[in-house]
Amino acid sequence: MNSTLLFWLPLAVVMVSALAGIGIFMAGEQRQGLRTMLNLFAAVAKLVLVGVMGLAVLGGEAPEFRMALLPGLDLVLRADALSMLFATLSAVLWLVTTVYAIAYLERGADRARFFGFFSLCVTATMGVAMAGNLLTFFIFYELLTLTTWPLVIHSGTRAAFAGARTYLVHTLGASAVFLVGMVWLYGLTGAQDFIAGGTLAALQLEYTLQLKVIFGLLVIGMGVKAALFPLHSWLPRAMVAPAPVSALLHAVAVVKAGAFGLVRVVEDIYGPELIAALGLGLPLVIIAGFTILYGSVLALYQRDIKKRLAYSTVSQVSYIALGIGIGGPIATIGGIVHLVHQGLMKIALFFCAGIYANLLGIKKIDQLDGVGRRMPWTSLCFSIGALGMIGLPPVAGFITKWYLGAGAVAVGMDWVIGILVASTLLNAAYFLPVLKRIWLHAPPAAWPADPTVSLLEVRGMVGAALVVAAMALGVGLFAGHPLSPLNWVTGIAAGYFP
Amino acid sequence: MIAEALAGLVFLPLLAACAVAVVPKRAVGVFVWSGLLPLPALLLPLTEAVWREGLVRLAVAGFASPLGIEWRVDALALVVLWLNALIAVFVGLYAARDYPPGSARGGRFWALWLLLTSAMNALLLSADLFNLFVTLELVTLAAIGLLVIDGKPAALRAAMRYLLLALLGSLFYLLGVALIYGQAGTLDLYQAGERLGPGLLPVTALVLMTMGLLVKSAIFPLHGWLPAAHGNAPGPVSAVLSAMVVKVSVYLIWRLWLWLAADWQPAWALPLLGLLGAGAILYGSVLAFLQVRLKMMVAYSTVAQLGYLMLLFPLLGPLGYSAASYHLLSHGLAKAAMFLAVSNILAVMGTDRLDRLAGADRRLPLDTLTLALAGVSILGLPPSGGFVSKWLMLQAAWAIDGWLWLAVILAGGLLAAAYLFRPLAVLCARPATAQAADDGSPPSATGLHWSGVVALLLALGALAAGLAPAPVLALLERGLPPGILP
């Protein structure tokens, strides 16, 4: 591939949805056809571009866009193996979520605003994925905060603003902490691109204490979006957003950006060796382990479907932090691959929750009685997601847990198995009763809302849910395929642990 | 070529102002635009010259300083000249809607507007303490004239207060100038600086002049006049007051401390000036958060943002200097955009009380967007000019272990988020009662007026300043004040 193309490709991947977003704003509220076309066209174009970029990376090339931003500091967008993983996940799920959202909001208001920011939000996510250094990462990470805010407040109700306020307080507070850490790090090391194995390891710095403090600051910066305890409380409250937004926030954009940032900090800035030498892995494992159990226990107590899923996210995303905290190749694979696995399973669950709420008015768990007979396909998707979360093979979640457990044993942290077992039991405790209600209980005489639905709504939403559920099943079933996320991540981890 | 360009910057708007006052109404427009639109073009050769030589000097009428008056343009002056030209043109385009050049009230407005532009350009070119005094007075008087142009009682009251305090400030400044002249025997800023040294009288003069300028630039705790004045002025006037008029006074403070007193500035005063800035940031932000009127909130935001300009003193160095200068530029663009957007909201909704603005984003999507984008820069979030200056300022603070300043800068950003997201939340709110009334009617299509586009362009300019700051920063680096080494 020629070098000009390799230079512009990463920028094109990021900007295609920004242009779509601007186009959607300009088209205005009334031109629904144009908006839908822009949405779908940009989503498909993005997927194609990511595909082209993936082929280039497979071919051993390194697409990189670089622009001088500040004296000595560059804006770097580039595709390495890790960014391809996240970029592919985002591009695929964006396309599916776009279809779902078009159907979901068919009768809604303020759709130009919604889809405009929706596209900008994906731009930010792509930028986070492709960021080649910490400053670029920060820029898109902040853009993500700003572009998701209008989505969270979409309904315009008092509750939405309260949720959005909590979200902002957390994320902007964290961004200030992140900024301090970054200024400090740049002060010590100067500008550094992400390097597999860590930039700091190569520098051989002597500032042990300072590096520990900076790590703490960066982990707080990432931990808020990744919903690590005690910084997680915004996530359940942001549930006031429409279902496609919740799905996107949980599965790809915000939460994943935080988790992805943790991976970058641990693997590409500090590097596994330095993390081990400074003893920073264990605190991360403890926080992540606690968050896993804490999120699961709180999920048990939720009566609202989306709230229960939210606490489930708090718990599940921490598997990623757990994996990279444990260290060693196997657990790292388990952690990073969960970026994809959790994304697919959780988005399926949220799609289904949105379908239940939108078509039948079901929002509480005790309203789910017998819904399996009324909506078999949706309920099937929900069940696949739920079983995957519990870790039942062959759904994707099983692979994560297997690698995390094996990896923990490999580095001598046997007690982590206890966390995994407890978490699995808790997952079962909060998902199985739901499945029992869906499939085994008798349906009520009348559903909470009158199901007057159009064909578009049903096909768009249920189709999207079926696609993601099938993918969640597929990446587990075909984990041995050369292009499966597991294999891809194995390649990434090989870069960290030569 | 350079001499003509420099003369044009001052005399073109000045002559146009005179012409506007006398020509028949239908010809006013021609003179207004021929006085404003060429300004950016005039700056091009000047920019090239400053880039090449670092400093451009011109002895006015051929008499060299100290006998005659000298004009000097260095990098800082050039950056502020550019800001002034952009504000004068863009905000001027916006103002042409509220004050059509051919109308009765348009005549007075445009004469003052051109006079203000000319006076600010003259101030930025001057290198002579008395000349600076005269131009600063002209700026103040023209600004006050614009402030009361609509004759609103609230604006009149605010203008009276502004006028009295500004005169007091001028007295202080003039007293300082007299002391300097008595000591150094020259009014040339640079020659006087060389002839003076640390001592009671020069420092007293410096402090007096600074006090006067602190009043004029509304630096905390002398900001009392600003919110009422900027909050009650007509929209385009608020924009130029916040973006330029208070800035040129801060610019003068910088000139005095970093050029005039480069060798003998009292070191003990630098942290004190920084503390004033810190107070402005924290106090102004909290007050902005407490406002019930959108425009007053923006005005208090200016009080807070001016504080960052004072942080230059404790963070003195190439990074701090670049940061503060860049902040001046990006805040100017963002704040002008914000005032224009708010003025549109006020005009369409009939009020700017926050509790009455629910759902305004449907009627005014463009202005809401402008407000949000300008807010990004004020918040200092990337990508924006505000972020660039914040980043450089944080680095400067880190480099000297100034954890207090670091904390203040970060707290300022968070407080700005608090006061800026509140109106945005209100604008996007869909309360249940308003929803019912709103649902039937489609959103009005009046959003896309060119005045709104002008505001949006200014906001986009503030964002663009975050994407390509390199040339401006390189230019500033070439013109560092004496004593600051790169």
Write the SSE topology.
The complex is a heterodimer of chains A (498) and B (486).
Chain A: H1 3-27, H2 32-58, E1 64-70, E2 73-78, H3 81-104, H4 111-130, H5 134-152, H6 158-189, H7 199-203, H8 208-225, H9 234-237, H10 243-251, H11 254-278, H12 281-300, H13 305-326, H14 329-360, H15 371-374, H16 376-390, H17 396-410, H18 415-440, H19 455-477, H20 485-496
Antiparallel strand pairs in A: 1-2
Helix pairs in contact in A: 1-2, 1-4, 2-3, 3-4, 3-10, 3-14, 3-19, 4-5, 5-6, 5-11, 6-8, 8-11, 10-14, 11-13, 12-13, 12-18, 13-14, 13-17, 14-16, 14-17, 14-19, 14-20, 16-18, 16-19, 17-18, 17-19
Chain B: H1 2-22, H2 25-36, H3 38-53, E1 56-59, E2 70-73, H4 75-98, H5 104-125, H6 129-147, H7 153-184, H8 189-195, H9 200-216, H10 226-232, H11 235-260, H12 269-290, H13 294-310, H14 318-349, H15 360-363, H16 365-379, H17 385-399, H18 403-427, H19 432-439, H20 450-467, H21 470-478
Antiparallel strand pairs in B: 1-2
Q: Strands of the biggest beta sheet of chain A: in what spatial order?
A: 1-2
Strand order of the largest sheet of chain B: 1-2
Estimated structural class of chain B: mainly alpha
Considering DSSP H and I runs of 4 or more, what fraction of the residues of chain A is helical?
Answer: over 70%
Poorly predicted regions of chain A are none
Greatest chain-chain contact: A-B, 39 and 40 residues
What gyration radius of chain B follows from the Cα positions, in whole Å?
Answer: 22 Å
Helices of chain A, by number, come to 20
The quaternary organization reads as heterodimer
Q: Could you give the order of the helices and strands of chain B?
A: HHHEEHHHHHHHHHHHHHHHHHH
- Which residue ranges of chain B are poorly predicted, with pLDDT under 50 across at least 5 consecutive positions? 434-447
Which sequence of SSEs, written as H and E, runs from N to C of chain A?
HHEEHHHHHHHHHHHHHHHHHH
Q: What number is the mean pLDDT of chain A?
A: 85
Number of domains of chain A: 1
Radius of gyration of chain A: 21 Å
Reported for the largest beta sheet of chain B, the result is: 2 strands, antiparallel
Number of strands of chain A: 2
Calculate the mean pLDDT score of chain B and round it.
88
